[in-house]
Each structure stands twice: as structure tokens, then as C-alpha cells.
Design a protein that fits this description.
alpha/beta; Urease, subunit C, domain 1; 9-stranded mixed beta sheet; about 35% helix; about 25% strand; globular; Phosphonate metabolism protein PhnM; Metal_Hydrolase; PhnM
Length: about 400
């Protein structure tokens, strides 16, 4: 049974560690189906009270009518990779990078993140990609266990089927790593995200500094890898996801046939479908549709694919990911609210819906008994500004 949304659980007492309960009062509480003027209390890490009214009890924080939302849940961000390699071929020390990444996400309202790490490397041309996921994951898990992070971190393995070493790298992980998501990637040029080779060339050449000849060699090599290993790597990645106990996600589905394949393989949600056709097929197949917040903010895809706003207007959008701009996640929810005239529905795309997609039942909503991951947000015109972020009732930003 789901916990009740509004009410009181017991009496408020100090935490065992001496910290008083957190009380955010005189706030606009964004619940799953309404916005309610009231207050919320978090103690011992969980929500114990949600009460209606604008009164401010002694010791409470007066939110002065600001919004209070559940902490944002991010399923697919490349932000950690940006911290460990701030420029091409510049390798940054991992622990400082991890801590800086964690602090940045906390500052944007993200309280749960699935850090996307690439598995599957390319060795034999100038656009090579080296293996890094196992070593970085080990350091991430150690930092998490040591209490160095402000927010909750899980692993997301981006399984690059168009690569040399996918299965060898995935074999290095196991159930003890608690991998949360495995997404099936196929970046073979000429299909999915990079149907437009010009867009691919712009992206890769700028990132890796390739000449025209280098780029042509890169494309030919990727097509060769797909022919040699594509089917084997796809089947192996699905088997490994099942071994880990991870949620499977598809990535960049473009056609109805690709969506059908993803559904048969056991995908629970679809990351960034590239066409209207694919999004419609996801809806028919029961796959939740995830789109990128930068696509929403810009009103268009940077790769020339379908507009997330177009999908939202047709009711074909369920989950939003910050993708490569962490601060875009909160802003995207308020942009969606403008489209739908429904703030709870929009906020669910960055809280409750991603939690549901990966089986997290203890967070993603303001409800009694759930984790005390909450944000205080004010509006400056149409821009949401963070006034405070709490993870399990402890202020982290």
C-alpha cells in the first residue's frame, strides 16, 4: 500500500544525532496531483508530517510561498565524464572529480543520480576510446561508502555495442556493484542518433580534432565493428544486465521495428527516441519515453532529431534527463508546466516517473514515510531558482 500523501506520523522529536527535525512551512507543496499550501517535516531522514495551512511553527523555515518539490532524480547524465576529462585527453584525478560532480548536481536540485559510465572501447584509430568504467566505478562506490557524497549515487552502464571490448568490460561488474541501469547503445554512423553524418562529423571532429581522412576512417571502423559484433554484443549486454539485476533501457530508437526489438529484449524505458514514429511506438509498447532537458530548453535536438516539446504537446513524454546540462532538469519541469498547465504532472517527469522506471519506491514524491529529499524553489520571472536542497533532511546546498 502506498503511504498517505497528507497527514502526520507520530510526534516530532530531535534526531538521534541531535539534529532537530527539518520543517519547511508556508510553502506551496507540489504533491503528485495538486499544489497545496502547507508545511512538511522531515526527521530521521524521512517525511513524517505534511500538513495544510500557512502557519509557521517555532523553529520552522518560513518559505514565504516558495515551492517545495521532491528531490530531482537523474537517470542518465554524462556530467561525471566531463569532470574526469574536462578536455580531450586531459585526465583529472578521480576523487576530486567525483566530489565536484556530486556538489554540482546537489546545487541544481538533483538528489539521486545514476552516473552514466561507458562500457565498450575502441582501440585502432585516432578516435579511440579507452576503458575506464571499472576503475572509476570502484572509486565511486568507495567514495559513496566513505560518506563523501552529498546525494545518492547509483551506476548506469552505457553498453556500446559498436565497440571492441564490450563484453570483457561488462564481465568485470557483478550484482555486488548494484548497477541500476544498463542502456543499449549503438552509435553506428548512418542510423539512430547519427543518421545525419554531417552532425556526427561536427560532433566528433570538434571533440577529437579529426581530419576528414581521420573521420572517414572512424566511420568505416564503426561500421566494421557493428557488422562483427553488433548482434553478439546486444545479446551479451542484455544477459549481463539480467545478471546484475539492473533495469534495461533502450537508446536512440528511431523506427517502430527498433522499439519492438527493445520491448522484446526487456527494456523498461526508452532513452531519447529520435523520431515521432519511435515515440508513438514506445507508447503502444508500454515503454516510458525519456527525453533530454536541453532539447526542451532549446526547443530542438542538437542532432536534428525530434523535438521533445513536440512530444510533450502530444502527451508522448514521461521522463526528463538533464543529459549534459545538470541545471536544465529543474528548468525543464517548469517549461513543461507552462505547456501542460499542470505543475505536478511536469514535476513528476523529473521525480516520481524516473523513480518508478527504475524501481525506487522510497523517493520521488512528497509523501509520508518516503525519503526526505526536498527542494525549496522560488520563481524569478519564469526561471526557477533553488533556495535550498536537502537530502534525507540534511541540507546539501
Amino acid at each position: 500500500m502506498n503511504p498517505p500523501l497528507v497527514g502526520k506520523v507520530g510526534a516530532s522529536h530531535p534526531h538521534p544525532d541531535g539534529h532537530a527535525p527539518l520543517c519547511l512551512a508556508n510553502a506551496q507543496l507540489v504533491l503528485t496531483d495538486q499544489v497545496l499550501t502547507g508545511r512538511i517535516v522531515v526527521q530521521a531522514g524521512v517525511i513524517t508530517d505534511i500538513l495544510e495551512g500557512d502557519d509557521v511553527p517555532p523553529g520552522a523555515i518560513d518559505c514565504r510561498g516558495d515551492y517545495v518539490l521532491p528531490g530531482l532524480i537523474e537517470l542518465h547524465t554524462d556530467n561525471l565524464e566531463r569532470h574526469i576529462e574536462p578536455r580531450p585527453e586531459v585526465n583529472w584525478p578521480h576523487l576530486p572529480a567525483l566530489v565536484a560532480h556530486d556538489a554540482e548536481l546537489a546545487s541544481t536540485g538533483i538528489t539521486t543520480v545514476f552516473d552514466a559510465l561507458r562500457v565498450g572501447s575502441i582501440h585502432n584509430n585516432k578516435a579511440r576510446y579507452k576503458a575506464y568504467a571499472r576503475d572509476l566505478a570502484t572509486e565511486l562506490l568507495a567514495a559513496r561508502d566513505a560518506g563523501y557524497f552529498r546525494i545518492s549515487h547509483f551506476l548506469h552502464l552505457r553498453a556500446e555495442t559498436c565497440s571492441d571490448t564490450l563484453l570483457e568490460e561488462m564481465a568485470e561488474f557483478g550484482p555486488e556493484d548494484r548497477v541500476g541501469i544498463v542502456s543499449l547503445m549503438d552509435h553506428t554512423p548512418g542510423q539512430r542518433q547519427f543518421r545525419d553524418l554531417h552532425a556526427l562529423k561536427t560532433y566528433v571532429a570538434k571533440k577529437r580534432g579529426l581530419s576528414d581522412a581521420d573521420f572517414d576512417e572512424h566511420v568505416a571502423n564503426l561500421k566494421r565493428l557493428q557488422r562483427l559484433y553488433g548482434a553478439k554484443h546486444q545479446a551479451g549486454a542484455v544477459a549481463e544486465a539480467n545478471r546484475y539485476g539492473a533495469t534495461l533501457a533502450s537508446h536512440d530508437d528511431t523506427t517502430e521495428e527498433q522499439v519492438e526489438t527493445s520491448q522484446k529484449l526487456g527494456a523498461h524505458f526508452a532513452e531519447f527516441p529520435t523520431t515521432h514514429e519511435a515515440a508513438l511506438a514506445c507508447r503502444a509498447s508500454g515503454l516510458a519515453v525519456m527525453m533530454g532537458a536541453p532539447n526542451i530548453i532549446r526547443g530542438m535536438s542538437h542532432s536534428g532529431n525530434v523535438s521533445a516539446m513536440e512530444l510533450a504537446k502530444e502527451g508522448l513524454l514521461d521522463i526528463v534527463s538533464s543529459d549534459y546540462v545538470p541545471s536544465a532538469l529543474l528548468l525543464s519541469a517548469f517549461r513543461l508546466s507552462d505547456i501542460w498547465n499542470d505543475l505536478p504532472r511536469a514535476v513528476s517527469c523529473v521525480t516520481a516517473n524516473p523513480a518508478m522506471a527504475v524501481g525506487l519506491t522510497d523517493r520521488g514524491r512528497l509523501a509520508l514515510g518516503l525519503r526526505g529529499d526536498v527542494l525549496r524553489v522560488t520563481l524569478a520571472g519564469d526561471a526557477p531558482l533553488i533556495r535550498g536542497v536537502w537530502s534525507q533532511g540534511h541540507r546539501v546546498s
